Fold these 4 entries.
Entry 1:
Amino acid sequence: MSKPTIYTQNDCPPCKIVKMFLNENQVDFLEKNITLDKSARDELTKTYGSYSTPTVIVNNEVITGFDLERLKKALNLV
């Protein structure tokens, strides 16, 4: 499995919870903050068609919003 990527932004409580969930489950991930990185924002919208955070990419599966059940399934944590 490739390393998941999480798109976040400043002052996003669901982003913090998803990152906490990933850390608690010892999942190594790449964070891209769309507030600080315009290319990450462009990638999120143009490549993945998402306009909200958190958005997590797991093996090309796009998980938008706060969906821990879907994230668990995608990461084989169920």
Entry 2:
Amino acid sequence: KNVRFTKENQISSIFFSIKIAGNKTESKRFGIIVSKRIDKRAVIRNKIKRQIRRCIEENEKYLLVGKDLLIITRPGIKDIETREICESVKKLFKKIK
């Protein structure tokens, strides 16, 4: 089933932007995009995805069910620690409510 993300339902930080859509289910679904502009090496891109997934798991409690989120990373994310990514994810999840 296709999900439409619109510009109106978007929230951003310096490390990434999150697009939000309702999914009419009792679950929360996430997609993470780390483009080749961030880093050409797949190893680094996958590491960033793992960091973000870990942060999502830690902060999932701040989100309501029935949401689809698409997380699109920005170039600055490559040089920061997981802890900082988690702080940013937590702030954005609290805003989404």
Entry 3:
Amino acid sequence: MRRWVIRLVFLVLLLFVAACGAFWALEVFPRHGSHPPLKLAHGTLAIQHAHIYISPSEPPIEDGTILIRDGLIAAVGPQVEVPADTTILHCNHCVVTAGFWNAHVHFTEPKWNLAEWKSDDLLNAQLADMFLSHGFTTVIDTGSNPADTFAIRRRIEHVQLNGPYIYSSGPPLYPLNGIPFYIKETAPAWIQLLMPQPGTPDSARRIVRRNLASGADITKLFTGSWVQRGHVLPMPLDIAKAAVEESHLNGKLVFAHPSNLAGVRVAIDSGVDVLAHAADDTEGVDQALLSEAVRKNMAMIPTLKMFASTVTTDTHYMDPICDEVRLFHSLGGQLIFGTDVGYMTDYSTDGEFVELGRSGLEWKDVLAMLTTNPSARMGVSRAKGTVTPGKLADLTILSADPAQDLTNFARVQMVIRSGRVIWQKQ
């Protein structure tokens, strides 16, 4: 009898050790992953007879040529000499801009689970559907399981997958007992156990240091969290300040999910750099508050379609949020494009462009949101954001002119990243 009990205990311990090892291999080890170095394409490409928007502020080049050599833009203009060994990308009077950014995405849908172990073909199809077919060459993951995000971006940068350049926040920081109700309703319990909820400033600093050491590029705070329908829990200011200070000491930006007046107030007072959403509860979010945010050089990612499609079908619900975006822009605030795809399972971008138009933005404003504004905010303007010789050949090719209709930003024909064609409409 005793021998049988000993064997049973040994078997249970063995299974426990095996389970811990599997968990470490699948979820702990992959949660560490800094950016691999860029691999630029080799060879020479040219896009001819294109309508080229060099930047939002410069007049377009009509019937121009872009020459790409070894992953970089070599020449742009109406008369560019094209070497004999160049591969010509047929454009048919297409519209070319710098590669688009989506500064608010997530890899939280179940289809991304255990991405380290999924096939190239499956992940390529998912990346094309979610990002490339909408023109995105760079994205910012503002909160997902790092085991999935880091695996995907590592495989992209090793040119195993076709995908955008991925920045990531790692796990966001929530107020104590402040996981949003919509996450509690959908995320597995074991995922919720991994969500940081610092109760002290020192704890917030440790979590930020751990995230950054693991490979995160930014910090994400829920300065205002919808813990219940109709109730926002703000993050204590001292905890938010500690997280921001630690991030800035390490040269990293901080994004905040604000939700309402209290959340925006914490974001402003703690020194947050980017509001990851417009505040959807706009009561008290007035000109004085937004003026203060602009004076402190805070940017905003509106994510308007997400609110319009996931919260309510009431058409009047969006009016005050669009007014908030319009006012922020009129005060000189920097707007950055982002859609919250991953949380929002409808990946199409037409609705975002429609809502931005309702907010009073013109095509030049939207092009800046997609290109120069995020490049500047992330400190990579020397490499991205404009169609300029010497910069990375990250380009989005459209079949129609967005100056005629904002939804033409969604008419993507081809995507080039680091001089490599990574998606083309069939």
Entry 4:
Amino acid sequence: MQGVPGTTASEKTSHYLKTEDDIRLYLSWPFQPPPVDVTLYHDLERSVGDGGVVTYRLMDALGVAGGNLAAEFMALLTVDNPRLLLRLVETLAERIYTHVQAVLEAGARPIFHLSGSEYATPPLMRPQQFDEFVMPFDRPLIELMHRHGCKVLVHCHGRVNAVLERFIAMGADGLHPLEAPPMGDITLADAKRRVGDRLCFIGNLQIGDMMRAEPHEIRAQVRRIRQDVPTGMILSTSATPYETVLSERLLANYIAALEAAAE
């Protein structure tokens, strides 16, 4: 892993699991759950008060697998050896569930920000594989979070048209960022007509537009979003800024978006 100068982004120079034998070796290792300390969560809760919310971002099982496998290798596994990939995801899901359970039992009540399901969306996988590699593991994890009074936001870039209702079926409270074409394959208005009040949408301002567009263009985008979905929507960018120091253009566009939202 190496950082990209001038940004918060990083890139992998090599993946940990390169072959099927690497996966089998990893699965053979003994596993000891790491200790859980929620002191920072409680410190943040006191610091934020009524001025915001504390979120806990974590990858689901497929997301952890996808982060440690090259994209081409994982795609081939879904065809050549799906059982091995499923064993890896099952093992990771059990460990993630145990960790989240410990966090909740320690008294933390964040809004969970769950990533990773985008690895099972087209064109990376077929919708039926979403049911195989995501639903059986994310649904019980979200149910656990809900039993402790927590809301769950699923983060999923790209083409979600074919799996949109599956986010409701798995129990998600919100979906971020729901990208319109060309980044995604469904408009915000069409998605809202399909899901109604069953799912809150967060996002829809492309971070690329925020970095390059003119402020008047961002204001127009915000107005269109508010017109398409007047309720059940949290205006946000599709991602956090990559720049370590915000450019004048990006700062001006954030101000423009806030002003247009407050009109």
